[in-house]
């Protein structure tokens, strides 16, 4: 299936609501986390990316500038019915380009175990186990250097 999509930041209140709802639905709801837990205090400083198929948001991701030359990709989520169609890879590519163009020399992220292979295919290297989310979801620090 070839999905026609546009990747950009949400613009309207409805798009922002849909953006955060998808983030919650994929990354929080399966662990019975309440609405609101899909957001943090850095939303205003981050760059937001949403994959739109026509008017529907089918994937989301956020790019944070964390240190000199270092960006972090966070809150990556693709609508389950759209997974394995290249949407996540397109989102990653768009965020990486933005990071490299802003002067980053390294991108980090914390991946869930089931997503390690996805990020490794995109050139990320697994460094070490990092945090345990909700006491059960092991995350792993991954890095990619520019070049």
Describe the protein's topology.
Blueprint: E1 6-8, H1 13-27, E2 47-53, E3 56-67, E4 70-78, H2 87-101, E5 106-112, H3 116-121, E6 125-133, E7 137-145
Parallel strand pairs: 4-5
Antiparallel strand pairs: 1-2, 2-3, 3-4, 5-7, 6-7
Care to describe what's here?
It is globular, with a radius of gyration of 15 Å. The protein is built from three helices and seven strands. Strands 1-2-3-4-5-7-6 form a seven-stranded mixed sheet, with helices on both faces. The protein is an alpha+beta fold and 147 residues long. The mean pLDDT is 95. The longest helix is centred in the first third of the chain and has 15 residues, at 13-27. The N and C termini lie far apart (31 Å).
Number of strands: 7
Instruction: Give the SSE string.
Output: EHEEEHEHEE
Amino-to-carboxy terminus distance: 31 Å
Low-confidence stretches: none
Average per-residue pLDDT, rounded, comes to 95
Query: What percentage of residues falls in helices of 4 or more residues?
Result: 10-25%
**So what's the overall shape?**
globular
Helix vs. strand class: alpha+beta
Computed over alpha carbons, the radius of gyration is: 15 Å
Q: Please summarize the sheet with the most strands.
A: 7 strands, mixed
Assembly state: single chain
Number of helices: 3
Share of β-strand residues: 35-45%
Major β-sheet strand ordering: 1-2-3-4-5-7-6
């Amino acid at each position: 299936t070839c999905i026609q999509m546009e990747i950009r930041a949400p613009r309207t209140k409805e798009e922002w609501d849909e953006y955060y709802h998808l983030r919650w639905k994929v990354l929080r709801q399966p662990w019975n986390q309440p609405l609101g837990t899909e957001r943090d205090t850095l939303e205003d400083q981050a760059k937001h990316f949403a994959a739109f198929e026509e008017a529907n948001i089918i994937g989301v991701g956020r790019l944070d500038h964390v240190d000199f030359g270092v960006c972090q990709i966070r809150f990556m989520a693709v609508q389950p019915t759209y997974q394995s169609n290249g949407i996540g890879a397109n989102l990653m590519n768009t965020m990486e380009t933005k990071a490299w163009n802003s002067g980053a020399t390294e991108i980090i992220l914390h991946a869930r175990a089931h997503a390690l292979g996805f990020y490794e295919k995109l050139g990320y290297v697994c460094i070490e186990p990092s945090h345990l989310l909700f006491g059960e979801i092991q995350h792993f620090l991954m890095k990619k250097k520019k070049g």
